[in-house]
Design a protein that fits this description.
Length: about 230
Amino acid sequence: MLYTVSMIIIGHRGARGLAPENTLAGIKAALEANVDGVEIDVRVTSDGVVVLSHDAFIVDSNGGNWKISQHTYDFLSNRHDSLATLSEAIVALPSTCLLRIEIKPDEPVEPLVALLRPIMAVQEPPKISVVSFDYKLLKTLHTTFPELPLILNEKWSSVRAQIRARKLGTKRLQMNQRWLWRGFLRAMKHGSYLITPYTVNSPGQAKRWERYVEGVITDYPDRFSK
């Protein structure tokens, strides 16, 4: 059953309930489900290539673990044939699709800055925003690209989220849906905060929160209709 909603629908790690996460196939599955946007995780290889991965390691077909930060992109891609770069992901998305790039804590920010610089310089850049739990990383990006939309990731503390968001000049938050309740969401909306809960796989839950949130991040965007 498809649930019709008015909020934005963001595919989680592409669309991890429909295809392998953080892959071009996952992005394709999300687009086929008519998402408004896609969220992906990124890490940086030893030679400065920004790749799609939630974990710090990749696992090859023989079960070998390879730490992304310690190996080159060529080395890793030869051991994981679905390893995609952020550049490839950007090309794969239509300009109308929102892209939320979550950079993991303690990853080097310079390669992302180098990749984003020519993108942000064009007259109508793609609809890209950067998400992280790493406040210092977001602060660096805010200083470098004041016009770049930032989204603060927060697991549970609304007080910390609001303090950090204010310093970053953003009203957008991604928050763990486990800690959210209707009264809190109502108060945050009254404060003009735009919250996207993660990971919401129940359309019924999404409908209950619809009037209070900007959208939801879901593994199963095919369960929603606009």
